[in-house]
Predict the structure of peptidylprolyl isomerase.
Amino acid sequence: MFVNRLSTLRWERFVPRGVARWVVLAVVIVLVAGAGFALTRGDDDELADGDVLRVGDTSVTAEQLDDRIAALEALYGVTPPQEKEAAERFRRDAAKSYVMGLVVEAEAERRDIVIAEKQSRAELGKLIEERLAGDRAAFTRFLGDAQITEEMVLAEIGRTLATNRLYEQVVADVEDATLEQARTEYDARRDEMSTAEKRALSNIVVGTEAEAQAVLAELGKGTDFAKVAAATSQDTSTSGKGGALGTVEQADLDPTYAVAAFAARKGEPFGPTESEFGWNVGVVTKIVPGTPLSFEEVAPTLIAALTTKAQNDVWQRFLADLLADADAVYADDYQPENPTSAPSEAVEPEGADPDQKED
């Protein structure tokens, strides 16, 4: 129920695995970028009426940027914040993301990185097979629900593959971290070097907050959680098991629910919390503490993480250089705080972490 699983097809599932979160960001910003263009210096810093930014000879209107944000929401689950200050920051980051998408695509083209349609279709077929057990009808339903076309999906897969290939070229000379560097990292973070705490949870799902409060009141009278779950929970996959979700880590759960579940004491109901599935009341039935890990156990992971961090640093500098050379001009309301840094997580797709777990 709350464990992250493929109950509906989300766009981030089409991001090839095996690359770091910050590489995914570079993929997102290429979304629905325009066809090929040339980056040349503009005549001046003035924007035409209705334009919110310009890169070289390519101008972007507020409507085009709004279309980009709407596409991000449909394909990646990126929802613009409602709070005024956060919404303003999101808008500025979205503008910078649009610029970065253009310059990344142009750099890939400059390096003659070309992804044949056959490759994109093969990747799409593989992803449908892996994520939807080959169910093309489910994929078609996703397209209809998201109001996008298969051609858009194929184009984005092509951009993703091209961006990944560009990334590989940029970080090709980064050397792997050493065992000595891993030991230093281990010693500095020894207290963190343990397996994650796990908790066995049971959960009740109802339709409204008032119903969830009624569940809490019933549990407060001493009524057995399993009986209440069987009688009231709308989650038919767990109600027959007393609401049991199994033993999970915090990272396996819906973020809001996870915070409540891992702050609760054993045997004490927690909630209500709201998710896309409804209102929830849970209980912790068992706590499995994390256990310390030896250096030998974590050394390969540390070496990989340190190597990835070094690659990340090179990639981020590369993106910053692209932005610095892009000759981008923004309208005042869209001017990023730092136009030459990589866009912030404000425009990063929810759930795009390649290490995200699924059932």
User: Anything to note?
Assistant: Residues 295-324 form the longest helix (30 residues). The first strand starts at residue 51 and ends at 55. The radius of gyration is 24 Å.
